[in-house]
Write a structure and sequence with these properties.
The protein is mainly β. The chain folds into 2 domains: 72 residues, membrane protein fhac (Ubiquitin-like (UB roll)); 328 residues, Porin (Beta Barrel). Helix content is 11%, strand content 54%.
């Protein structure tokens, strides 16, 4: 079924597409006081004297929104073929504050407030989301609660006009949950210090390849779960991505496939692999159509992989309907289906007291029905789960999407989860 949907995604989806083309006579950029012109121009994928149609303009608008640095984007053209790109920039320096349930669900913390610091991580820091006008991000982040420590991060989608490479790197020092112990009902912490660097062909391209390298220094506490071992592990992780989505943070059309191979060397040597495939099929027309979305995702790890390198659910990686059920797996396979639909039109608001950064603030509400089934394996035991329910999506700047979902699992238990971003 998944492969049939993927094939449908690759086929032309709109029999009524406007194919009338016009020659571009000039391109005018408005509103980019911080963002450099080449950042916008690279996402247009057309130049003066090229022939384009309205579908090309809409695709370019969505690619610009995928950058995550604009409140809104408008692209218009006149009878002479002059194309005008108008953007409203978000404020580039933002305080990073918030709370996220990473060791369970928010409902866990609300049911038992004494476990708040074991479930929720609180964050505080500062980020520049449009560093040097290149649509890159640099930030410093402190965390406490379920995860405690400090991290420095930098990322860019494209290094320069002549260097079409994406780069991410960071340094971190954290005290994190030992999830293997948590599955057994015991709370304990590991010390994890390290660094990572991820280099790929430019992010946002229809296909790209990359290499992620990471170093982890993990210290176990000496108790009944460990003898106080030290793990010094270097990761060498090539990956490949096929990305034909029309919008990264809320796709309504297209296809996404990613495959990862994690090779770990050092005090622990093992291999992990993961793969995911998603497709999005619009049923109606418009910028926010009724659509069907589907995803298949799975991973496996060698038996000699240490416990901290297994796959865990009910933590940051949540299975719908089982966000409060903490489980461990050396391999898993899951499939998800959703029907997404708009509830309200898209509204734009101006907040004059924020100056130009308060222009074109977007807001809309969407909904969806979903079904998920997953199979996990650990120690020769297999666990089959499924859940169904409904989700609501709220459009906000910076976080882009806030999702609230209610799921009912096979044991007739309900689970409520509030997260930033859609699942896929």
């Amino acid at each position: 079924m998944i492969f049939l949907l993927l094939l449908l995604c690759c086929a032309p989806l709109s029999a009524f597409a406007d194919e009338s083309k016009f020659a571009v006579s000039e391109i005018n950029l408005i509103g980019n006081q911080v963002t450099k012109p080449w950042v916008i121009e690279r996402e247009l994928r057309f130049d003066v004297e090229d022939s384009v149609n309205t579908n090309d303009l809409e695709a370019a608008r969505l690619r610009l929104l995928s950058l995550g640095i604009f409140n809104n984007v408008r692209i218009d053209y006149d009878s002479e073929g002059a194309v005008t790109v108008q953007v409203s920039e978000q404020f580039r320096y933002i305080p990073v504050t918030g709370a996220s349930a990473i060791e369970g669900s928010l409902s866990d913390a609300l049911r038992d407030p004494s476990r708040m610091l074991d479930v929720v991580v609180f964050t505080a820091g500062l980020a520049d989301i449009n560093h040097r006008g290149n649509a890159g991000m640099v930030g410093i982040l402190t965390e406490f609660g379920a995860r405690t420590g400090l991290s420095l991060q930098y990322s860019t989608r494209w290094l320069s006009p002549r260097k079409p490479f994406s780069l991410r790197f960071g340094l971190f020092s954290m005290r994190i949950s030992d999830r293997h112990a948590s599955v057994l009902g015991v709370s304990r912490r590991l010390r994890n210090d390290g660094a990572y660097i991820d280099i790929s062909t430019r992010r946002g391209a229809p296909s790209r390849v990359g290499l992620a390298m990471r170093y982890d220094h993990i210290k176990d506490r000496a108790d009944e779960f460990s003898s106080g071992a030290l793990h010094d592990v270097a990761w060498f992780s090539p990956y490949i991505i096929l990305d034909r989505r029309n919008l990264e943070w809320y796709p309504t059309d297209g296809l996404f496939i990613r495959g990862d191979l994690d090779n770990a060397f050092g005090s622990s040597s093992f291999i992990r692999s993961r793969a995911t495939a998603s497709c999005y099929i619009p049923v109606t027309s418009g910028t926010r159509p009724l659509l069907f979305a589907a995803r298949a995702i799975g991973g496996t790890a060698q038996d000699r992989a240490p416990a901290w390198a297994h796959y865990y659910f009910g933590f940051y990686d949540k299975l719908r309907g089982y966000a409060s059920v903490q489980t461990e797996a050396t391999s898993y396979l899951a499939a998800e289906f959703e029907m997404r639909f708009p509830i309200t039109p898209e509204y734009s608001f101006d907040f004059p007291w924020f100056g130009r950064y308060g222009d074109d603030i977007p807001f809309w509400i969407g909904g969806g029905f979903f079904f998920q089934r997953a199979q996990t394996q650990f120690g020769g035991a297999r666990n089959d789960v499924y859940a169904y329910g409904t989700a609501f999506h709220f459009r906000f700047p910076y976080v882009q999407i806030l999702e609230a979902s209610v799921a009912r699992n096979r044991d007739n238990e309900y689970d409520v989860v509030l997260e930033t971003g859609i699942r896929f």
